[in-house]
Amino acid sequence: MKLQSESVRSSTELCEKHGKWALLLLLAAAMSPVASAQDQQKFEIPKQDVNPGQPPSALSRENLAKKRPAPPFNLTGNWMFSPAMNRGNGVFQYLPLPKLKPAAQASYDASRAAVAAGKAYKNDEGECFPAGMPESMTRVWPNQTFQLPTMIFMMQMLKHEPRWIYLDGRPHADPEIKPPSYAGDSIGHFEGDTLVVDTINFTPKRHWVQPGIPAGPQLKIVERIKLKDNGNILEDTFIMTDPDNWEGEWINTKVWFRYESADIEEAYCLPDLNDKLLSTRPESNVR
Amino acid sequence: MSATKISIRLLQIALLLGCGSALAHHSSAMFDAKNEITVKGTIKEFDFENPHVRIVLMVPGEQGGPATEWNFEAASVRGMALAGWRRSSVKSGDEVTAVGAPLKDGRPGAMLHRVILADGTILKSNLGANY
User: Fold this and answer.
1) Which of A93, A143, A282, B89 has the most crowded CB, counting CB atoms within 10 A?
2) Domain tally for chain B?
3) B103 touches chain A (CB under 8 A)
């Protein structure tokens, strides 16, 4: 006890004698430009490989900062597809149909026969495959859309299907590098009050333009998009060509309204969906 | 299939969607949109989730026969919430009456139009294509 007391007294004396110097040292260290050990850690940023000839990211600071003419409109918002507003164009279908090639005609006829029999036909979307373009835009949930100077990003709430429309002047991606997809490869530019979008490089794997009419690898979609009614209506004219499946241009104009009363939410298509829902069970589908 | 208080009413439902289907993320061709079926039973399952809310009812058999499981497919969570549904609106064990467009092939299931709770409250199903 005595030794401890002496120790305590000694420490106290030291603290009292040297404490003010210790405090000064601490203050000096805090104000010193010499950083802490953690602050001094340097990160070796990996060298970012870029495929030759490919543009930088649409989100790169350099790309975003480039001077560009102001666009005539901004599509940022939620766009809701309204069946009631699209009764004149086939709603979820694209009517009238073009002249279908024989195989596509046979598939379409089979799909109508299935519907007449009270079944779905090759219901890949119900089995959680992506709807893909153009169908992804006509689901009855909002398309959440963000427009930057370099691209438009659109995500359909159902299954969170995305599409990217690049506005930074890049050409279509090299199909040797970028694989075919359900959304396709979209590039766009403005012509007056119209956004013109050109989309190619679609995957044909269980991908349909509408029930019964397949989307082939040569599918090309040109869209002419306008905002109307003080920015409350999005009008999209689809000009679709697919020499494997139909002749000439398949043209159809559909409209969406700006949906501002809520945000989108999560809506996955989970593997057990088919077992739970009547409309996706095997007995409700023709394959 | 057996059920109590099953009634099928011929109902003229205006087809608002032209050639389209009401569910529209996949076909609804398997449902008879021109008719309605009404069943009363006990809730076995209530899935309040996307993309489709779902209710499973155990419907007693006639004259004490074995119960039948009826499956009702409804709208998205958002659509149902807009119609007044909440996750706690119903639960397993609740006695309800469900009305919907029946499956064409006679299986015990339907696209839900509305549920009538024991206290008489009516909860409709927004079928998603409510615009």
Assistant:
1) A143
2) 1
3) yes
